[in-house]
Predict the structure.
Amino acid sequence: MGSDTVLIDGHCDMCNRLAKFLRRHQSDKSELNIVAIESEEGQAIIQTFSERHQSMDTVYYRRSGHVYVRSGAAIRLLLTMKWYLSMWFPFAWLVPSPLRDGVYWCVSKVRHKLG
């Protein structure tokens, strides 16, 4: 398995659409693995995270041994995308983390209803 792994909720339609979007727009040089949190592989990966990260119900992005969660994971995923999407990475970081995570939290609460 490569060092870049995204862990998503396999039962969530919105998360599955995200996985399809990532695969379709992934950069040619990016090696991104997408794994369902509920799978044995996903649970094994989560067990390697810190105790604080293990208890979160969110999207995870593990890149080169570092774990990103919530909006930080979403923004870091831009770096795996084709140039016309990855160019938004520096601008996305300009949005304060509490605001980004607040929007992420609101969307995450209704994600199962969106599918």
Notes: Helices lie at 13-25, 40-46, 51-54, 70-77, 83-86, 89-92, 97-110. The first strand starts at residue 4 and ends at 8.
